[in-house]
Write a sequence for this structure.
RNA sequence: GGGCGGCUAGCUCAGUCAGGUUAGAGCGUCACAUUGACAUUGUGAAGGUCACAGGUUCAAUUCCUGUGUCGCCCACCA
């Protein structure tokens, strides 16, 4: 430092630390440690220390548990900022405030990540290691990610109660998962069924409908007949599946084909004998293609549904590896794409192909592995969303105890009756639409990392026994189901599994239902809907009163951040360069509920300047008020009174905005007020009064400055916790922490 | 195919889901000033037919209808 000491020093009364420009990196870690050690993140300690009354209203929220697949991105940072603002606000308002952290094992995402690494580094797959050894690897990876994530959450300043931290795959959550599964099984809401499911040949597991991503591809659609004498031509994009056809469906009113309905034909299709029945089904669109559909019950969900309606046979011709599984040597063992070519050339040879056209079609791929979904018939576990059962709870408006309901009905009801409010409102429509089109949820996965299905099988002479329970029953040879549960099954329990359920705990009684769920709109189906499903059924109550959906953080041009575009921004870098406070502010300003956030570095830099402004203004006020005597009588001028009135107005507005989740507005107003009213005008005007004014005038000016500073620091604290806490600690007479100061009230 | 959202200053967005004087902010740009809280500064300026077209109204960026455009979600017309 090259500070020369020759100048008269107006700064002699301020603490050393305030002299240099604000340096977030030097401050933040120590401040976070102070908070953590104070215990104020934990509501029990707040009550113990008199910060919150024992009977104060509660504010509770779970942290959407980040996946233990790596590090946090800007979207997480935005989420943490919003949630921490709400938490700090309510804590300062004296509520019993709980923000409960944790992480998600993210079954398939984590496993496939570890598998990829294993393949890349050691050229091994999970079977080379075996279940136990492989799981050890996954656990080590998950632990590592977890530690990183915890560190990042702290760096953002999140005031989560670490003493209650949970993990979706820990022992306590395992109990909740088993309890939920067993109850649902006993009520007939979970069943095992042989159905066509979404099979991911790459990940070698089933996945749910929601884990499918549609991708547009060019494809050929072929119009042909099974044989020369077959009366009806059909069209398909997947000729290779046609060796599994057992019917041709036409519309009941289609005059062209009505004469054939009910007839049966035997043909040999590319060497494979087929027995085809002509059926009439209203699901067939007579306008499309030839108006006739080849029905392949084993390899198409719609066709499977037709099979159920018309009692057709089902022949599986493709196996789990996406290879043909039929006797004909031309096809057997071939990949589906190769088999397709074989069949097309066979059709040409036989002169059966009538037309070939190019179309764009949507192809189903697996979200995590990118594998192309192969619909296959498999014996799997499902949650039945349409099954009727008597409602066991008491806390859902409009539904009486014992009333016959379905899971769909419960999910609809709590949003419709206003018990749970989805924000922004438009997403309630999306939510309802999703429920209306919801099919049974396939919850079993053929992967190793996750909650093992609590079901036991035993082979017997006349088939087998099944037992649903946490432990194997008495007797020999019981084998647990090798499959694990969809990761969202355990996250669906998150609002209450984290509070000790199924035990009757104080935490559960006090903090459930939670006040608000803040999460990204991209997981409204995966998670929000599943939580509502699980909670309404298992608890007979809502999981949360409000759902605050935030958008996606994009780059400054509105593009999605992605590694391939090279426009990603690591929150850790942003924090290092500009500080956590600036990073938080940049993610809040301009981010209305449900809107995507365009974030450029400029925006963060601007907020760092703001932090510096706060720092310097505070330093100035402290200097000027060093000789302020609070015991002296204050005579305010008219403009002083107006300034205080304006401050009161600000307090009221900020309070109102946060209460209504308009954080972006509150942040902008604070920014504007502090900089352009307080610093630019009020402080400027005070300068002359303090240097040249009468003692009374000087005193009044000092009173105004310190009052405004004190109040604005409180208002700013939820948004910029580190710098405000730091300044607070440097102000004379402050021995307590700003984090638990009382939120200001307008007069 | 169904549904949803955006379109306001060069860029990113506000405009508080109850229409009304010169439509706001940040960043950027330009000019000037200042080293006595802060050059991470101050003052000032330029810059907008509020996508377009109809309609309702005394009055529309704001309400209604339609069009265009960009984007998103859902959906196995084989």
């Amino acid at each position: 430092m090259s500070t020369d000491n020759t100048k008269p020093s107006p700064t002699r009364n301020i603490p050393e630390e305030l002299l240099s420009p604000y340096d977030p990196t030097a401050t933040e870690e120590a401040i976070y440690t102070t908070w953590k050690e104070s215990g104020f993140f934990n509501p029990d300690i707040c009550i113990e220390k008199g910060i919150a009354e024992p009977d104060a209203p509660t504010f509770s929220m779970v942290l959407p548990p980040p996946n233990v697949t790596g590090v946090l991105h800007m979207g997480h940072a935005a989420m943490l900022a919003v949630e921490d603002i709400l938490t700090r606000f309510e804590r300062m308002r004296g509520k019993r405030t709980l923000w409960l952290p944790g992480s998600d094992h993210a079954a398939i995402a984590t496993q496939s990540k570890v598998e990829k690494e294993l393949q890349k580094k050691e050229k091994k797959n999970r079977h080379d290691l075996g279940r136990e050894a492989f799981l050890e690897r996954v656990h080590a990876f998950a632990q590592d990610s977890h530690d990183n994530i915890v560190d990042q959450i702290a760096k953002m300043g999140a005031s989560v109660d670490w003493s209650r931290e949970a993990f979706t795959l820990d022992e306590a959550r395992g109990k909740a998962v088993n309890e939920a599964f067993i109850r649902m099984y006993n009520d007939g809401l979970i069943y095992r069924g042989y159905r066509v499911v979404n099979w991911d040949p790459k990940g070698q597991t089933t996945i749910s409908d929601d884990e499918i991503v549609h991708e547009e591809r060019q494809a050929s659609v072929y119009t042909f007949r099974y044989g020369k004498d077959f009366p009806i031509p059909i069209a398909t994009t997947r000729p290779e599946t046609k060796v599994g056809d057992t019917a041709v469906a036409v519309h009941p009113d289609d005059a062209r084909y009505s004469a054939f309905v009910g007839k049966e034909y035997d043909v040999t299709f590319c060497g494979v004998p087929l027995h085809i029945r002509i059926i009439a089904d209203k699901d067939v669109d007579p306008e499309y293609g030839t108006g006739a559909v080849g029905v392949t019950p084993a390899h198409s969900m719609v066709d499977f549904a037709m099979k159920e309606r018309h009692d057709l046979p089902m022949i599986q011709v493709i196996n789990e590896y996406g290879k043909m599984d039929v006797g004909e040597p031309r096809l057997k063992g071939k990949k589906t794409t190769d088999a397709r070519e074989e069949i097309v050339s066979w059709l040409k040879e036989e002169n059966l192909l009538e037309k070939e056209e190019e179309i764009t079609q949507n192809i189903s791929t697996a979200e995590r592995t990118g594998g192309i979904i192969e619909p296959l018939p498999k014996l799997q576990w499902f949650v039945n969303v349409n099954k009727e059962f008597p409602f066991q709870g008491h806390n859902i408006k409009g539904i009486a105890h014992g009333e016959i309901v379905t899971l769909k009905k419960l999910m609809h009801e709590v949003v419709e009756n206003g018990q749970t409010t989805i924000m922004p409102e438009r997403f309630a429509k999306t939510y309802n639409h999703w429920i209306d089109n919801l099919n049974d949820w396939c919850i079993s996965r053929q992967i190793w990392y996750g909650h093992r299905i609590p079901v036991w099988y035993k082979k017997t002479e006349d088939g087998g026994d099944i037992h649903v329970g946490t432990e194997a029953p008495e007797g020999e040879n019981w084998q647990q189901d090798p499959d694990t549960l969809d990761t969202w099954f355990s996250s669906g329990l998150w609002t209450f599994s984290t509070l000790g359920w199924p035990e009757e705990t104080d935490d559960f009684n006090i903090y459930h239902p939670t006040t608000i769920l803040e999460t990204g709109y991209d997981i409204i189906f995966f998670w929000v809907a599943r939580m509502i499903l699980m909670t309404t059924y298992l608890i007979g109550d809502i999981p949360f009163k409000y759902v605050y959906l935030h958008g996606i953080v994009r780059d400054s041009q509105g593009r999605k951040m992605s590694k391939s575009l090279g426009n990603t921004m690591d929150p850790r870098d942003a924090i290092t360069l500009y500080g956590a406070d600036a990073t938080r502010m940049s993610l809040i300003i301009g981010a209305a509920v449900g809107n995507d956030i365009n974030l450029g570095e400029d925006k963060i830099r601007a907020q760092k300047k703001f932090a510096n402004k706060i720092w310097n203004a505070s330093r100035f006020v402290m200097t000027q008020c060093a000789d302020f005597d609070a015991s002296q009588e204050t005579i305010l001028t008219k403009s002083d009174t107006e300034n205080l009135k304006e401050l009161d107005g600000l307090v009221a507005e900020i309070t109102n905005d946060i209460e209504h989740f308009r954080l972006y507005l509150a942040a902008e107003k604070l920014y504007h007020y502090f900089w352009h009213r307080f610093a630019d005008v009020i402080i400027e005007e005070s300068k002359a009064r303090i240097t040249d004014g009468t003692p009374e005038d000087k005193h009044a000016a000092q009173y105004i400055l310190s009052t405004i500073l004190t109040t604005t620091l409180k208002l700013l604290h939820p948004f910029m916790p580190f710098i405000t806490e730091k300044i607070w600690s440097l102000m004379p007479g402050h021995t307590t922490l700003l984090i638990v100061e009382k939120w200001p009230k307008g007069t």
In short: The domain at 206-376 of chain A is CATH 3.90.740.10 (Isoleucyl-tRNA Synthetase; domain 2). Confidence is low (pLDDT under 50) at residues 1-12 of chain A. The longest strand of chain A covers residues 353-366.
